[in-house]
Amino acid sequence: MSDRTTARPMQSIDIDVGGTFTDLVLNLDGETTIAKCPTTPHDLSVGFQDAIEAVAEKTGTTMPELLPRIDVVRYSTTVALNRLIERKGPRVGLVTTEGFEDTILIGRGAQWLDGRRVSEIRNIPAQRKPMPLITRDMTVGVRERVDSTGRIVRPLDEEDVRRKLRTLMDRGARAIVISLMWSFVNPDHERRVREIIREEYKEYQLGFVPVVLSSAVVPKIGEYERTMTSVLDAYLQRDMQAEISATWDKIRDQGYRGSFLMIHNSGGCGEIFKTSASRTFNGGPVAGLIGSAHFARQLGYKNVIAGDVGGTSFDVALVVESGVRNYDFKPVIDTWMVNMTMMQTLSIGAGGGSIAAVDPVTKRLTVGPRSAGSMPGPVCYNQGGTEPTVTDADVVLGYMNPGNYFGGKMKLSVRKAERAIRDRIAEPLGISVLEAAAQIRRIIDESMASAIKREVHMRGFRPDDFVLFAFGGAGPTHVSGFKADVPRAVVFPSAPVFCAVGSSIMDFVHMYEQSRRMVFMEPKTEAFVADREQFNRTVEALMEKARGELMAEGLPVSEAIFSLELDMLYGGQVQVKRFSSPKVRLDSEDDARAVYEAFEAEISDAYSPLVVNRPGGAFLDNFVLRVTVPTHKPSLVEREMGGADPSAAASGSREAFWPETGESVDTPVYTFEKLQPGNVIDGPVIIEAEFTTIVVPPGQRFSIDKHGLGVMEARA
């Protein structure tokens, strides 16, 4: 495979599959075209193909004419999470060290909290540990033992392995996970167990099963998290393979010959053949974060809140000091803590499809986290939905144009939305339909505003130091409600497909981790005693692995940027801090001192200078090599500023209810695409775009900046 060039703009298709809509961004011959189609949960490849056909039609071509011109397709998907929630994976067998068969069943002390909503955590009597993905009868312990230094204490009993392997297969195992004690230090036993499985069940036989090694998936300390990461990969692999293979086959049949990349939750993308299932989790929101950071730098914003309101969820992420180095080191996927580095985002069940209901006992109105999804969708979609949603409330309030929704491709039923809200919300609460719709909107907006405040305050920042980027199909519609204490919100013309835009500018990024415990600075004497030879050997091994994978993917190794991050902690403390190492190699004591000083500076900034404990010594815990191959990134185009008068973009008016004044008024409507830089509009006003609607209530002002972006601020 020849090296891909990354210097020129690539002809690309970027697709983000959400719970309700499938978003697409086409970059072709310097022009960007967007498309949006309903997600098809029964077969995601159908919605994928529908989106490509829609964008091809927009560009005046057909799918077979368009695809051969494309260099790369990048894909982010919710398949992993959906399949996990549905618990439709295969029976997985686990091979572990004898005596440790109950490790994943015991879990960690606070496992019952993992992945739970606050309302669930408060109801302590109802809490239970999650149902295991691998039951006890599908777990076997084999006779072997490796100690923490990698020394073989008990040789592998191969006959024991063969006997217990047959037991797992007889019980219906369709995938095998091998997670042995301390295998990340010495993986020989795990590799030999895999060889035995291949000897017993060969690839050409019907009984062939996928085999996942924990030492290959997560070569890091932490047996529970390492095992669960491997279990999730094995549990999701078959379904994801089938789903993505169907998509891959369809576009290949239509003439596509380029690369097919998956968006990774580490902040980059990689070949589908080099991507594990767990790496695809939360790829869409991470792409939105990367896109936000890119445009924030161009706009001169250092601190940005990325707020993505889709049909099913609201995702929040932060850009701080122009950087996105906010990681979850042990994130929770569904209810399972795993051991991999993932960019930090917060997701709550709030979106256009969130279902509103009245508790029959407390008479309290709740909105979300249940969602109507894409099928049947909100009641107003005319697809069989019966429960009122946030979108139904927006339609009833007059904010949505029922005759021109979704680019005119969907006609909405105001009557059905009104009836659903009246029957299920207004009458049980004894209020009018408009008041009920306004309350639905207020509750969902407050939920999203609370999520933003929690994320910002918990990291030690103030909301008024940030700018809000509002995107997703429902982001511009609700931004006035959830921006709360954030003084300024920015709306991009590409807001409805912003996560796909983010993936279109993502670099090729791979991350390689290796646990290696060593004393870096000696306690008491504070002498730098890091084993420089072992340090350099560990980094070089990771770099060698990275070079091999880059060459296999056809990426130019010469353009790769290698950066090293380290996990380090002080003696007497348990808090590990990840920081960027200024040195990739340690060739002198000065190099070691520079690395330590970077650690001290970052831990002081993150916690306090009071946590610095030099007499306790510093201990290195983990190596993280980040390899980046940059791609071409577009720049925002500056346009000439015009006058404040927006009348050229006026498209009419319609009746809309504004809770701020408590009345329905005839409200001006404008077309977003026709607004020009310099235009200023004071609310109340409704601004319609192809795939979204911007709602500007009384007291807010909407203006167009020199880049053609919308800016919403409180009126002075």
SSE diagram, text form:
Blueprint: E1 12-17, E2 21-28, E3 31-38, H1 44-58, H2 63-66, E4 72-76, H3 79-86, E5 92-97, H4 103-106, H5 118-122, E6 139-142, E7 145-146, E8 152-154, H6 158-170, E9 175-179, H7 188-200, E10 211-213, H8 214-217, H9 223-253, E11 259-263, E12 269-271, H10 283-299, E13 304-309, E14 314-319, E15 327-328, E16 332-333, E17 336-337, E18 342-343, E19 346-348, E20 354-358, E21 365-371, H11 390-396, H12 414-429, H13 433-458, E22 467-471, H14 475-482, E23 488-491, H15 498-504, E24 508-521, H16 532-552, E25 561-570, E26 577-580, H17 589-606, E27 618-629, E28 650-658, E29 663-671, E30 680-682, E31 685-688, E32 693-696, E33 700-704, E34 710-714
Parallel strand pairs: 1-4, 4-11, 5-6, 5-9, 9-10, 13-22, 22-23, 29-31
Antiparallel strand pairs: 1-2, 2-3, 7-8, 11-12, 13-14, 14-19, 15-18, 16-17, 20-21, 23-34, 24-27, 25-26, 25-27, 28-29, 30-33, 31-32, 33-34
